[in-house]
Amino acid sequence: MKKLILKAFALTVLAGGVAGCGNSFLETDYYNGIDQETALNSVDNISTALNGAYYQLYRYYFAGNYATTIGDIPTDLAYWNAGTQHFNDIYTYTVNDTDTYLYYIWNYGYKVIDNAARLIEAIDALYDASTDDEKAELDLCKAEAYALRGYAQLVLVNIFAHQVKVNGTDFSSKPGIVLVDKPIKPLEEVSRSTVGQSYTAIVNDLKDALTHFTAAGGDRGDLYYFGEAAVHGLLARTYLYLEEWDDAAEEAQNALDAKGITTLTYGKDTYKALYNGGTSNTESMFALAISSSQNWQAQSCGTIWSTYDYSPSPWLQSIYDDTDCRTNVWEWDSKSTPASPEFKGGKFGHFSSGNNTYGTCYIVNAPEMFLIIAEANAQSSTGSVSDAQNALLTVAKRNSAITSAGDLPSTKTDLMAFIKEERARELFQEGLRLYDLRRWDEMAQVYAIGAPNISFTYTNYKISDLVYPIPNDEITSGFGVAQNEGWSSTLPSR
């Protein structure tokens, strides 16, 4: 892949200067790198390179903004007041194959994937000759490398390929992504796997991560690094998309158990305090190490959801009750008007400082796990409405008017309708809505206009058909990556 893998530059952009797998990857500068020919020949260099792989994940080009934000912006959850041009083509469905956001998501996703593949290969080469202590550290690094690759592959296949399952219909034979089991050599031709093969690789990577956490004696216990709870959580999300309901529920519960979470935070002030910044979110299982000293300023998610003119849509606002604590993170700028709303960051508010550029992305979180358990029980032949209600109640009690399972719908159809809205209420700004709408085969309403009215440019849009184009630079490089055939016809038309 010309721009990404085939030039084999990955290790020259990895972070230098950090020794030891336990050091924070944000406690160093990122400019020296290490030579790729001799880079991964020691445990310390493996650790350094792993920190560099995290850095690529954390960049605003990938999980630190673009790859997260794209999951909400083109959905019914977002409103754009047209004050700036950021993400406007994505929002208005006028996207093309030279779109900058898509280019960087693809580019940096493959940096993470390639870095992880090189780490895994190098660890295998060092392992047998290492001491027991070194093996434990290498197993820990390998577990995190597998998790990094699995996460990046899941992001890319969701954005650049068809949803694997759509309300029971299997699309696993559709074109997926380029899998990187082993580092790809310069000038080597590549090809896309199927969606099904991509998902198999994701599941295998996440399971391998868990195996190596066990071999290492556990994870770091650090929110800013992948650990067992987060990996179980990603497996739960993956199985949910695969409609493997029982596995999804089991892995979601494993994630909660690994984190020791049995309930959530309720009450407006305590809920808002979750978003004071960094580790303040005690419900999170994995977050990016974005802070007051390390952040993306104008390119941050907080800026997208404030001065770059995105806010919760009038429809989203309408589905919260006044008794719901989650809107307590919603603040509006003094110049905001009903017709031209100016949001102040929401979950990215970083309320301890009030500077929304310091707000981090919480990537895997406990509320999602309860919602996965609820949906899986509602959908599975082995589940029950009562089990679904009990899991759902844990999240739905964010609305203080809901106090018992009796306040929730009692039929599968009505319960699923509630779960769909509850995922919108709870997971807003976490970048999952697009994939929910696609997998449910919702006839979607997108490109909100005319605030404060609830109005959309496109309604009854079959969003499950949507696939974004592979960046044109990749297609024209001549190394074998094929475009999504007919992708432009999957966009809505007026």
Task: Please summarize what this structure is.
This protein has 494 residues and is mainly alpha-helical. The protein contains 16 helices and eight strands.
Task: Give an overview in words.
With 494 residues, this protein is mainly α. The strands form four sheets. A two-stranded antiparallel ribbon has the order 1-5. A hairpin with a 2-residue loop joins strand 2 and strand 3. The longest helix is centred in the N-terminal third of the chain and has 29 residues.
Question: What would the keywords be for this entry?
Answer:
8 strands, two-stranded antiparallel sheet, 16 helices, 494 residues
Topology:
Elements lengths: L42 H16 L7 H4 L8 E3 L7 H5 L7 H28 L4 H29 L4 E2 L2 E2 L24 H22 L11 H14 L3 H15 L8 H6 L10 E4 L13 H4 L5 E3 L1 H5 L43 E4 H14 L5 H12 L15 H16 L5 H8 L2 E6 L7 E7 L9 H5 L18
Antiparallel strand pairs: 1-5, 2-3, 4-6, 7-8
* Helicity level: 40-55%
Report strand %.
5-15%
The rough form would be described as: globular
So what's the oligomer here? single chain
Number of helices: 16
N- and C-termini, Cα separation: 36 Å
The whole-angstrom Rg is 22 Å
Biggest β-sheet strands, sense, barrel: 2 strands, antiparallel
Mean pLDDT: 92
Order of helices and strands: HHEHHHEEHHHHEHEHEHHHHEEH
